[in-house]
Amino acid sequence: MLSGRTRIALAVLVVASLTFVILDLRGGDGPLSSARSAVSAVTGLLQRGAATVFSPITSTENWWSTWRNQAGQIVELRAENEELERALRDSASDRARADALDELLRVATAGRYRTLPAEVISVGPAQDYAWTVTIDAGSLDGIEREMTVINGQGLVGRVLKVNQTTATVALLIDASSAVGGRVATTEEIGIVAGTGRQDSLDFQLLDPLAELVIGDSLVTFGSSGGRPYAPGIPIGEVTDITGTAGQLTRVATVRPFVDVSQLSVVGVIVRPPREDPRDSVLPPRQQQAETDDTTSDDQDIPEQDGNEEADVDDGARAEVGES
Amino acid sequence: MIVRQGLVIGVPLLIASIIQVTLLSRLGLPGATPDLVVVTVIAVALAMGPGQGAFAGFLAGIIIDVSPPSDTVIGVNSIVYLAIGFVAGYIVDKRDLTVIVMIAVGGLACAAASLGTAVVDSLLGSPRVLWDSVPLITLTSAVYGAVLARAVVPLMQWLTRKLAPEVLLEG
Question: Which residue among A83, A139, A229, A287 has its CA within the 20 to 30 Å range from the CA of A37?
Answer without folding.
Answer: A229
